[in-house]
Every structure is written in structure tokens, then in C-alpha cells.
Amino acid sequence: MKVVMCQLNTWVGDITGNTAKVLASVAVESEPDASHLFVFPELTLTGYPPEDLLLRPALAEHIDKAIDHLKRELPPQAWVLIGYPRTQDGELFNAAGMIHKGQLVAEYHKQCLPNYQVFDEKRYFSEGNAPCVIDVDGVKVGVTICEDIWHSEPADSARRVGAEILVNLNASPFHRGKHKERWELLGDRAREQNIPMVYVNQVGGQDELVFDGGSFAVNADGQLAVVTSDYTEGQYQLAIERSVRGIVIEQQPIPKGPAELASVWQALVTGVRDYVEKNGFPGVVLGLSGGIDSAVTLAVAVDALGAERVQAVMMPFRYTADMSIEDAAEQANVMGVEYSAISIEAIFDEFMQSLAPQFEGLSPDITEENLQARCRGVLLMSISNKRHRLVLTTGNKSELAVGYSTLYGDMAGGFDALKDCPKMLVYALARYRNSLGYCIPERVIERPPSAELAPDQKDEDSLPPYDVLDDIIERYVELDESPEVIIGAGFERADVERVTRLIDLNEYKRRQAPVGVRITTRGFGRDRRYPISWAWRKN
């Protein structure tokens, strides 16, 4: 028996297009026979996550039409297991159905609905309550969906009713360290049930989520038997046979797991590429300041889209260092992107002249710094409007956490590749990208970071050192540690109290920030939903 793991990049809401992808994937096998089982990801027909599209009254009709189309067009001898939402007796289920010989021969309803981090399936779906085991050419195949495999009962109930192998349909988003989590989990579950397991995952970017693929299979002893490519659509075969030990998956060479920086880089590239492509933008434009964040963002954009679809704009002011102008021009030249420089000096002066009556008698402060950023935001958004290019903002997680950014200035734009990347990770990514081929000037990586909004300004004039700041943010945001616990871990009380206060106060900014790629277990966005007006900090 052959199992074909069909790793697809679906488009949420494109039921017709996703159905066509299913047909094309099966057609890759020119003559599939009754021993071919094609396994597709969770909710393939709608894409994942469909969110409130699931509440649209016409959804059930569209899904029924898609399934009928598949029943007519799929090779009758093949077995095809596919995910979709199913309305039944007034309830909506996250379902997987097996199509064979023009019929929907079996259907399974997901039993464990995740309701944490980026997941809120209990908002939409009812829980299934029964196992599903299907005889496929003499092999009893148990079916589960994503979260089911993180709990013992669904796999256990499938084995109790005869499953000899378990397949798991997934839409599992990437975060750092996710590969190891999945491999260890499925290995434990396989040993627990003493049957092999196949894990098929979605690939591609969907708004802030990135799905890394990485489908794989383990034998009953929990050892990896097959691992597919990351971030790549495709059909990946594995062979199973019956032995005295039961069903065994034929061993294939196991590639070395991807290095963490390589995985993060691919996530950022995939997230930018799919956001641009799926929203119909011909290209992107960004402000290239000569600093580390815009340098890394430019490199991600070029890797995602190609240099011909990327425009970089340097917008110098009286506080912009010569080295910043030189380094921005060098990187733009090395990467081959369209590049221009537009001074904001005259624009800023016009604003200040118009505002002079309002500012009379008041000393300069952060207002003038923010105005510089807003001048740049106006220029980039105007280029975006005229040339239909998406503005990529360049803020990182550290800045977004503490509000070290300007609303309607450097936060103006449509997508933020580095939104979930702490500052120290940004530096590591710059060095990683240069290891693949030089593109970011070394001086950009080595010089102290500065917003260059005031004379001789440095980020550490306003913030703790970034290695300290990032650690406090991780503990407070991702691990939910209290300030007292963080202080107890050895951090200075003044730093902790200041940073956590800034995180709390700047929720209103983050609500207005562009969407961006999620690469941690607690990104700002779907993961973390705090009120803007609240008094918890007083307790």
C-alpha cells in the first residue's frame, strides 16, 4: 500500500481553487490504484483558518458542491482523505471524508477542538464523539484531525476498534522549535498505541500564520520513518507493508532537521510572499534607513519576491548619519532593487511652520521626533497608493512591545515581516542571511542601533540593552511571568517595572499595528488579546 502525503498551500475561502489543487495532486500519480491512499491537510477545501467565513449561510452548499465535484472527477480506484467543514443536523463539524469509487465512504468529525493561542475552534465547531476506521485495501486506517493527536483518547479509541495505522490531518502553524515538538509527540503517541502514524501538514502563509509543512511518519516504535520538505508544496509517498509485527512504514533517509535560524528565515520569506501574492499586490515598498531592521526586512522581501518587485526608499533628515545613507545605498545596489532617496527636510519644515501657532511657547520634545517618522510614513503610503505596492513596515517585537515606534509614522503600512522577531533575533537573522550570500553591510550589524530622530540618539538611551529587554519581554509576554517573578530571576527591579509598564500601556498602539509573521508561541495579534482600558497593573 502507498500513502501519498499531499502537502498543499491552500487559499482561505477559495473552495473552487482548493478543490482543483486536490484533483491536480491526485493526478500526479498517473495511474493510482486501490492501494493508493492520498491524505490531505485539515480543512483543505476552505483553507485554514477560515475564521468567520464558517458562519456564512452559503458555506454548506459550496462544500457540498465541491465534494460532489471530487466524487465525479477523482480516479475511482484511489482512496482520497480530505478535510472540510461539515454541517449536519444544525451543527458544524471539522470533518475529514474518504472518497472512493465516486462515493463518500466514511466521514470523521474532529473530537478535540483547540481553544488556545491562535486557535478558537470552539467558536465554530461542535465536537465529534466517535472514532473512524476505514478498510483501505485490507489495511485498517484510523483517522484523526490535528489537535486529536495531542490527546490520548482519539487515537486510543481508533485502535480499540481495529486501527492498524493512524493518519492525522493537520493545519499546524510554525513557531520556533515546533518540529521537535511534533516529532516527539507523534513518537510518544505511536509507542503508546503500538501502531504507526502519519502526520500530514499544510504549507504556506495565511495572514500572520505560517504553515511549514514538514509532514512525516513514525513507526510503532516511535522512530521517524519519513520526513518531507519544509515550506514546499508536493506529494510525498511512503510505502507500508504487513509483517509479523503488524503494519510497518518503509524506512526512508531522514534529512537532518533544519537549523532554527533557517526555519525562521523561511517562515518570514513564506509569510511575506504569500501575503503579497494572496492579496494581489504587484510588489512592495519599504523605507531603508541604514539600520538593522529595515536591512533584514529588505533581504526577506527580495528572497520572497525577487528584486524586481521590491522598492527601497531612503528618507534622510538632518540627524541621519552619512554612514546610514552609504549603507542603505550599498545594500540596495547589492540586492539589485529599485532605490531612491527623498529628503524629508522641506516636508518637516513645512509642517513645523504650519504648526508654529499651536506650538508657540512649548519646548521641543518627542513631538518633533514623531513628526519626522510621520513625514516618512506619508511618503511611503503615497508611493503605495500611486504604484499599488504594499508598504512593508520594519518594526520588531521588542519595539512593538514597549511602544518604541510611531503611530502613522514607522508603523504605517500593510505588513510587518519582523513583527514577532525580538531585536537580538533580528541581528542573528542578519548574520544568517549574510552566510548565504553577502547583502547586509557589516557596519549595519555592528553599529549601535538608533532611530536617528535626534542628535547622537541611541536606542539604549531610552531602553535597557536589547539582550536584557528581550529576555524581560519573553518572560512577561510569552511565559506570562509576573514582574516579581522576573525580578526574582535576577533582573533589576527598575528595568522590569519600566518594561512591563510600557508593555501594558502600549496595547493601544499594537491594536493599530500592521499584521505580521508569527514565529513564537505568543505573538502580538491572535495569540495575545489584552484590553486597552484596564486596571490590572494597579493590583
Q: Any overview of this molecule?
A:
The chain is elongated. The relative contact order is 0.09. The chain has 2 domains: 2-253, Nitrilase/N-carbamoyl-D-aminoacid amidohydrolase, CATH 3.60.110; 262-463 and 506-538, HUPs (Rossmann fold). The strands form 4 sheets. Strands 5-4-3-2-1-14-15 form a 7-stranded mixed beta sheet. The chain has a 6-stranded mixed beta sheet with strand order 6-7-8-9-12-13, covered by helices on one side. The protein is α/β, with parallel strands linked by helices. The model has no long low-confidence stretch (mean pLDDT 93). 37% of the residues lie in helices and 20% in strands. Helix 5 packs across helix 11 (423-436) and helix 6 runs parallel beside helix 7. Helix 4 (178-193) links the parallel strand 8 and strand 9. The protein has helices spanning 15-27, 59-73, 152-160, 178-193, 260-278, 292-305, 322-335, 345-359, 366-387, 397-402, 423-436, 442-446, 466-478, 483-488, 493-505, 507-510; strands spanning 2-7, 36-39, 79-88, 91-100, 103-109, 133-136, 139-145, 165-170, 197-201, 203-206, 209-212, 216-218, 224-227, 234-243, 246-249, 284-287, 310-314, 338-341, 390-393, 415-416, 515-516. It has 16 helices and 21 strands.
